[in-house]
Hints:
This protein is an alpha+beta fold. It folds into two domains: 5-52, no CATH class; 61-122, no CATH class. Helices cover 27% and strands 22% of the residues. Strand 3 (23-26) and strand 4 (32-36) form a beta hairpin. Helix 2 (91-100) runs antiparallel to helix 3 (106-122). The longest helix has 17 residues, at 106-122.
Amino acid sequence: MIRNAMRTPDGTILESHSVHDYVTHVDKNGNEYMLDGGLSYVRASCWGDEEFLTVWRDDRHEVVREALEWGTYGVDGDQPLTHIKLMDMDTDHILACLETQHTIYPQYRDAMVNELEYREMYNED
């Protein structure tokens, strides 16, 4: 799994980032929606009117590169945490992540390698 997310009827997006990251929202319609599991599993409430936005590692790369968000503290590690989409990361940043982040999720590593190949194929940088 690359992204564990759902959209409630009022447009609120719930996203679970890690195991036991249990998130909830009381929608304008009065129903409570929940999502849990991070990138390990999907556990969710199902009212039938929510939209699941889950992205899997075997989805098309164009979908994966837009859904995968990497947390960064900046080049020197002294900035507030921000999240950046894989498609918006500099090539040098991706290479640095692949070289230094040894505990990276395997699906993230695969997506980053695929992104480098995608950029080479389409001359993006």
